[in-house]
Amino acid sequence: MPTDMGEITKEEPRKGGFWDTVRCCHTIKIELTPRQLLDINGEFDGNKAVINMFGGIYTYFDDNLGFRPEFLAFSSPHGDHRIVLKNLTDEVGPLFIMIDEIGMAFSHIKLTDKVDQSKRFVAFRYHVVASLFSNGDFSS
Fold it and tell me: Could you report the per-residue pLDDT of 22-63, keeping only the tens digit for each?
């Protein structure tokens, strides 16, 4: 079993292999606030959350690379978000999306009860993360 990255890459001499793919990933750090996930009543808003997730991805490309991928243009019809992500990765390559400090987004002033905070996080995980990045069921 390889013990470091050097040994791993030596075992993979072909171009376009797994480690080549990992090395060319765009690492996108997204921080979401309560305002980006909750409606004015403090209830989770799935549509708002998805829009803000894609907004974070858009901002990464615009701020760091100076271009706007075709499939993230505001004029693009988004429809099924998995299709958008597939088309986006076809256009720009692999993505590694990191949602940083996600707990902060669920510390809304109206969510003083830990159970309410947990319910909002589960709703986010189910409606946003599972629907965007998985074909499986994250309901458990």
Answer: 778 888 888 888 888 888 887 778 888 888 888 888 888 889
- pLDDT tens digits along 72-109: 765 454 566 777 788 888 888 888 888 887 777 776 65
Per DSSP, 136 falls in state S
**If you search the block for the tokens 């949602």, which residue do you land on?**
99
Q: What is the DSSP string of 49-113?
A: HHHHHHHHHHHHIIIIIS---GGGSTTS---SHHHHHHHHHHHH--EEEEEETGGGGG--TT--S
Give residue limits of the domains in the chain: 24-133
Rounded Cα distance between 22 and 107, Å, is: 33
